[in-house]
């Protein structure tokens, strides 16, 4: 098969499948057996995998997609993932069948994998975004759409990665470092934008499964920590508590904060942990035809969409935790959406009614 020849995968619900192209080595490539791109609200890098048929030898392809190469994946000309090839895996089997698998991650992988380097290794009164920007020696780009609190003191632990520094600070403030299509990282929360239409059983849902799971919820979330300086209870016995009123029995969890904190920050982290536990107690996995919603907008992690399924017992707004776009000759273009109650991603509880009789939509009960 000529790798430079473009072809269409056919039609699905909502019209013609998008053309998937890859920019690499100064050219535009558009003939694949299968293409998969995955974006997650809990990952700071998008991932991709491309499977292609090739003539034996494949020197041109090997040079273009060698490990470390720059690539950009586009759906109908719109950028979905800009990054680097991590692995180039050619296979030649009997009967001269030649296959190539190309996989990699977005540009932010350098921020994720590399050690944090800073002249002093210490930051004072800086936001997580400011700290991450100072550690971004790679040109990834760290942005935010949130009002972040300043961190009184943060010290880099010897050997920790730049991403590990950011991830700890984001977890404390209830926000997420999310990989973007252009390879940058955005510090954000979920549930801020809504997709057009809805996911409805018997209409546009091809497959669905749900997980109503309360095993990770606790009646009391207790965060304990210390300040690096000072004495007395306000410095040495810091504690923040958040209670989940929907848990009807005593099930506490104690979390020790790994770093400097105070009562206000400990309380915020306890609330964040409680809300994420409540949000993660309802999950759904939905397969739909095509890459976009009813309005033509690509499915995006963090956005909400209403889900209505009697079989799965889900009737409420859900947030997209991750989306996997895939395209091949057999199934055309598919999106596999991993969905959670919006609280799991820092948003508000899903609207539209309870998701089953056991689902509690209010995780209140703070002290």
Question: Which characteristics define this entry?
Answer:
367 residues, Phage tail proteins - horseshoe like beta roll fold, single chain, Phage tail protein beta-alpha-beta fold
Write the layout of secondary structure elements.
Elements (H helix, E strand, L loop, with lengths): L10 E2 L2 E2 L3 E5 L2 E3 L4 E7 L6 E7 L5 H6 L5 E6 L2 E16 L3 E10 L2 H5 L8 E5 L1 H8 L6 E3 L6 E5 L6 H12 L2 E4 L5 E4 L5 E7 L6 E6 L7 E7 L6 H4 L1 E6 L8 E9 L2 H18 L1 E8 L14 E6 L4 E15 L3 E9 L27
Parallel strand pairs: 11-14, 15-21, 17-19
Antiparallel strand pairs: 1-2, 3-4, 3-7, 5-6, 5-22, 6-9, 7-8, 8-9, 10-12, 13-14, 16-20, 17-18, 20-23, 21-22, 22-23
Beta fraction of the residues? 35-45%
- The tally of strands reads 23
**CATH architect. name of the largest domain:** Roll
The Cα radius of gyration reads 23 Å
Percent range of helical residues: 10-25%
Reported by name, the CATH topology of the largest domain is: Phage tail proteins - horseshoe like beta roll fold
Q: Quick one: overall form?
A: globular
Helix/strand/pairing class, anyone?
mainly beta
**Overall pLDDT:** 87
Largest sheet, in brief, is: 13 strands, mixed
- CATH homologous superfamily caption of the largest domain: Baseplate protein-like domain - beta roll fold
